[in-house]
Specification:
Distance between the termini of chain A: 61 Å
Chains: A alpha/beta (about 300), B alpha+beta (about 90), C alpha/beta (about 375)
Number of helices of chain A: 10
Number of strands of chain B: 4
Shape of chain A: globular
Strand order of the largest sheet of chain B: 1-4
CATH topology of chain A: Rossmann fold
Structural class of chain B: alpha+beta
Oligomer: heterotrimer
Helix content of chain B: 25-40%
Number of strands of chain A: 8
Number of domains of chain B: 1
Number of domains of chain A: 1
CATH architecture of chain A: 3-Layer(aba) Sandwich
CATH class of chain A: Alpha Beta
Number of helices of chain B: 3
Largest interface: A-C, 50 and 53 residues
Chain lengths: ~300, ~90, ~375
């Protein structure tokens, strides 16, 4: 029996723009897997989907915005975080998720990443890290481990890679976790935890890019990579982020590394204005109801 | 009576093999049949072992498979949850 | 719709153009700005930062112009009227996001207080050399609206107009000031709020099931929704169809990009504002804008004292360019004289529209100061001899 037709529904289905299936991701790519964990987190944390907005940048992971049935914004390369900041400040009631890739968030978007973390803007950032620029054909990313082969380092990379958890912790993030696409349930749990937190949360998900990163580096296909994640991941909750850097084919430290509390940007802003202006301070008003304009004649 | 059941959306499958590999009770295998894109979708070889855990669904990058618990399994879960909640009082 | 009185500083003020621009934005209903400091524009957002916490808005100074130019758009989709302010080098950085605003039809205002360029140029001195960039700076085919105030009073009045046009056409509007207009202090009269007309957001009234983010009817401008209202819409900078979904085919591209242009072009008559003086019997018409128009006025008056028949056409709207006006005048005048604080930008448009029916004489200036009226007078005299 190959195609079971019944009245059950895939739990992730209500979160998808089914009119846009099938998606463009390659066989064995892990991005779709991360979407399952995201959907699971939405269900478990009972988030009001109508006040959730998802912002992505450019790249394979950036395409997530187009496939989820939420208010979603596919913005420019590297600029999902500032767009999300504007969204959140104009409507503080929104729950804003940034869903983007490692190149988008840490290369061209790097400046915005560190400033949003510094400010502790209340954003939940899901960074799918496939260690490469996938959409454009497999170029070196700031996260590509040393001595990997890419299209712009055809003789092997020689730059050190960013340790993203370390970077965002240093910049000020209040929640930092890393999982791989093998850790589907833990990832869902981390995303749920991030939803309970106010401030800048950053969840890195290591994911296969079988078409480019794995293929060029003779690491097999998506399944081989998932098996490598299963074998080589070590859960190290609370580990110092300075020690969780990635190497080519090396151990992958996963877990929740940082979970701390400090006031988020809007709380600090409010406190400062109240202290300086007292009663004169008027908070950003809710967006008004659509103006009832007469449409007759 | 199996505790769960697998549903497969054959046309979405790209035969990545995640579901086959990570099903905890090895319910699935890639079949010899083809979908219209030429991929071998999985099929259920041990239906009686399915617990309805939906790990296949969680792993599938193409939203092509999912597991659901049977009615009995769901009510057993609910009873367990209620008992745990009661014990915490 | 009338302006929200909370944002209207009714009264008679003695302020500079930058400050008046800020007041115009507040009067128009702007409650969100994202900025980055750059001379000579910074005062606009400095004043906004001081005013807006008391009128229920928010200002954030972002880490660079790339962030500012997109954060303001997040603010728009979150429900606010929003703008940013910059000068040449920042304007260049913002180009990608001006294109994004045009493509996604995000109503917003970009203020460029022009200074000497290129590159770092003359941070504290005027130029008008970003005029072509305002129209063509981003990649691809798109259309924008650009306004040029020539006084602090106009910095107030026309900023409101800029926001109104942005909302009406769902387009980014370029507010092309220059360093002199921005830093000159003059009388600015701000009327009571109920005398200020403000265009509200073209918000959809359709149900969640019916609403399509980019469906349009006759006016080619789609209805908008905001994040958080339950519409669950998708917005992308990729070529998209009426559902907002990426649809990268030649047919969709043709339909979309042409509509983005035509929604402005078919309304050009309504959008184009000019100031005319003594054009009826003119032999020569001086076409100018911004601070140069103030100097040109002196030259025109001097020319009249000599008995020359000179008319004035001041561009208040620079883009879309008021082709029709030039075509009509070219048929009966000898020449156009076009002084600008650049080495020839809007003069190209005049020349193009005149199509050889009248001569076009440029009066360029590399920037850093304003013309000497004599330079413009000499060109008028030369033009009269044609």
């Amino acid at each position: 029996m190959l195609n079971v037709v019944d009245d059950t529904v895939n739990p992730v289905e209500p979160f998808l723009r089914t009119d846009r299936m099938p998606h463009i991701w390659c066989p064995g790519c892990g991005i779709g897997t991360t979407v399952n964990s995201f959907a699971r987190a939405l269900i478990d944390s009972k988030i009001d989907l109508e006040s959730l907005a998802l912002v992505s940048g450019i790249g394979c992971t950036g395409r997530v915005a187009g496939y989820v049935k939420l208010d979603s914004f596919h913005t420019t390369h590297g600029r999902a975080i500032p767009f999300a900041t504007g969204l959140k400040l104009a409507n503080p009631k929104l729950n804003v998720v940034v869903y983007s890739g490692d190149g988008d968030l840490s290369a061209i978007g790097g400046n915005h990443l560190i400033h949003a973390a510094r400010r502790n803007i209340d954003l939940k950032v899901i960074c799918v890290n496939n260690l490469i620029y996938a959409m454009t054909g497999g170029q070196t990313a700031p996260t590509t481990p040393g001595h990997a082969t890419t299209s712009t380092n055809p003789y092997g990379t020689f730059e050190p890679a960013f340790n993203l958890p370390h970077l965002v912790e240093a910049a000020g993030a209040v929640y930092v976790a890393r999982w791989t696409t093998f850790h589907v349930r833990q990832l869902a749990r981390s995303i749920s935890e991030a939803f309970q937190k106010k401030g800048f949360s950053f969840i890195e998900v290591i994911s296969p890019c079988p078409t480019l990163y794995q293929r060029r580096n003779k690491m097999g296909d998506g399944l081989d990579t998932m098996k490598y994640y299963k074998e080589k991941s070590k859960v190290k909750n609370g580990a110092p982020t300075s020690e969780v850097g990635l190497t080519l084919n090396g151990e992958i430290a996963v877990g929740k590394f940082v979970d701390r509390d400090r006031p988020d940007y809007q709380s600090m802003m409010r406190a400062q204005y109240v202290e300086s202006l007292g009663d004169l301070y008027v908070e950003m008003t809710d967006p008004e109801e659509p103006e009832m304009e007469c449409v007759c004649g | 009576m199996a505790k769960g059941r697998v549903s497969i959306v054959v046309e979405r499958c790209k035969a990545c093999g995640f579901c086959v590999e990570f099903c905890p009770t090895h319910v699935l295998e890639l079949s010899g049949a083809f979908n219209s894109k030429g991929y071998h979708p999985p099929h259920v070889v041990h239906p009686e072992k399915c617990s309805g855990c939906d790990l296949c669904g969680m792993y599938c990058p193409d939203f092509a498979i999912y597991g659901t618990k049977s009615a009995e399994a769901k009510s057993a879960d609910a009873a367990k949850d209620a008992k745990a909640a009661g014990g915490e009082k | 719709m009338k302006a929200d009185p909370d944002g209207v500083l009714t009264g008679t003020h003695f302020i500079d153009g930058d400050h008046a621009c800020c007041e115009g934005a507040l009067a128009a209903g702007a409650r969100f700005a994202a900025g980055y400091p750059i001379t000579p524009s910074t005062e606009v957002v400095e004043r906004f930062a001081a005013r807006v916490p008391m009128v229920g808005g928010c200002f954030i100074q972002m880490e660079d112009e790339l962030a500012a130019s997109i954060a303001l758009q997040g603010g728009v989709w979150g429900g606010a009227k929003a703008f940013t302010v910059t000068s040449g080098p920042g304007f260049s950085l913002m180009m990608e996001h001006i294109g994004y605003a045009a493509m996604t039809e995000t109503p917003c205002v970009f203020v460029d207080v022009q200074r000497g360029g290129p590159s770092t140029g003359l941070p504290t001195l005027p130029a008008q050399a970003d005029m072509m960039q305002a129209r063509w700076g981003s990649h691809g085919d798109y259309e924008i609206i650009a306004l040029c105030p020539n006084s602090p009073q106009e910095c107030f009045d026309l900023t409101i107009k800029a926001f109104n046009l942005a909302e009406e056409f769902r387009v980014p509007v370029m507010f092309m000031m220059d360093e002199v207009v921005g830093h000159m202090t003059e009388k600015v009269v701000i009327p009571p709020a109920d005398e200020i007309e403000v265009v509200p957001r073209k918000h959809t009234r359709k149900s969640v099931e019916e609403y399509l983010p980019y469906a349009t009817n006759g006016d080619m401008v789609p209805e908008m929704a905001h994040a958080g209202e339950g519409y669950k819409f998708h917005i992308t900078g990729l070529t998209h169809d009426e559902r907002g979904y990426p649809n990268m085919t030649t047919q969709t591209q043709d339909k979309l990009v042409k509509r983005l242009q035509n929604k402005i072009r078919v309304a050009a008559d309504r959008i184009c504002m000019v100031e005319e003086d003594r054009l009826e019997n003119a032999d020569v018409v001086v076409v100018s804008y911004g601070i140069t128009s103030r100097v040109a006025q002196r030259a025109i008056d001097m020319a009249h004292e000599r008995g020359l028949k000179v008319g004035k056409l001041r561009l208040i709207t620079a883009w879309p360019f008021p082709d029709k006006k030039i075509v009509e005048l070219a048929a009966r005048v000898k020449a156009f004289v076009v002084p600008e604080l650049n080495l020839g930008q809007m003069v190209r448009e005049v020349e193009r529209a005149a199509a050889g029916k009248a001569k076009t004489i440029a009066v360029p200036h590399a920037g850093g100061g304003v013309h000497n009226p004599e330079e413009i007078l000499n060109a008028i005299v030369e033009a009269s001899r044609c």
